[in-house]
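To: structure desk
From: M.T.
Subject: fold request, one chain
Message: Could you run this one when you get a chance? Sequence is below, nothing fancy, just the single chain.
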Amino acid sequence: YVSLVKYLNQEQWLIDNLDFVRKQCEYENTLLFEIARLADTNPQCNAAIKLLEELTMSEPFNINYWGVLAELQANTGRYSDALSSIDYMKAITPNDAETLAMEGYVKLRMEKPFEAAVSFEAALTIDPKMYVAKRNLLQAYKSTGNTTKYMALLPEVYEATPMDTAVVVEYISAYPDRIEQVMPRYYADNDPDEMQICQIAGEMCNSGY
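Reply: Done. Structure tokens follow.
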């Protein structure tokens, strides 16, 4: 039902008539959760946060509710609230890699890269293959000026996504001597536009090539 509303661009109608719609549902928590997950604009996010706060009161041990709530809080700049929600998640499921990665992401948004790095490192201790944690940890290392750890992690991030333009640019900037191996691989499986090519060429020039 919620997907149909999204397809018809009737999200505002659903929000305006939520009290009526929820009375028609056998299990309204499912409806409220699906509505909250579809939020993408700021007003929708604010409305979704209220729904999720209601859901977490109804089912306080549902980590999915807390997770989406924390994400929406972070996306609307409510970082302290997001960390509070994440604390609930950590209490429900200790040592969960996704929760720790989310905590790191929020701290990175709060411009606390040292604390963010600790959270991302903890997440990778649990799930060493978690790419999102690696990518954000790379940014945390860069922000803290930890060149040694940044340079050590960058090749690993590159090998995971060798077709990602942003990663490729970052990689050849750090390792300009590897351009001859990197670029043919990039162009073989990618179709970059003019702006991307200019961006890469600029980085190569800055590196002396």
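Reply (cont.): Residues 107 and 116 are 5 Å apart (CA to CA). Let me know if you need anything else for the meeting.
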